[in-house]
Amino acid sequence: MARYRSHSIEFKRQIAQEFLAGDTLHGLEKRHDISRNLIRVWVERYQAGAFDEDAAAADLLQQYEARIAALERLVGKQALELEFLKGGMRNAPPARSAPMSAIAGPKASPSPKDAG
């Protein structure tokens, strides 16, 4: 199966501008290894303003992708912070609900070695 090349909008715009500036189809075909018919199509689209719309859509898409990446980083950071805080809660000493004496301090809790 043949594999088709994909050219950027900037490249297509450059080829169309070179043709409109006076380069020949034959010269552009040889220099860039693309067909004359494809150059004609790109020139027509360039003159119709299609590359401007494509460029605007590509810029908007790039902005959206950058925003998505930033939000994904933020979600990852928050997930790490949440796991860290959950771990801290598991290892935290229990809340002191028993009354304390000003002289003796809190009641001593039994140690694990004395429990056995």
Fold and architecture overview:
With about 120 residues, the protein is mostly helical. The chain has a domain at about 10-90. About 70% of the residues lie in helices and about 0% in strands. The protein is built from five helices and no strands. The chain has helices at about 10-20, 25-30, 35-50, 50-90, 110-115. Helix 1 crosses helix 3 (about 35-50). The protein is rod-shaped, with a radius of gyration of 34 Å.
Low-confidence stretches: none
3D shape: rod-shaped
The main β sheet shows up as:
none
- SSE ordering: HHHHH
End-to-end CA span: 76 Å
Number of H- or I-type helical stretches:
5
Report strand %: under 5%
Number of β-strand runs: 0
Helix amount, in percent?
55-70%
Which structural class fits the helix and strand makeup?
A: mainly alpha
Radius of gyration: 34 Å
| Overall pLDDT score | 83
What's the gist of this structure?
The protein is mainly alpha-helical and 116 residues long. Helices cover 68% and strands 0% of the residues.
Key attributes of the depicted protein:
68% helix, rod-shaped, mainly alpha, 116 residues
Compile the SSE list and pairings.
Elements: H1 9-20, H2 25-32, H3 36-48, H4 50-91, H5 112-115
Helix pairs in contact: 1-3
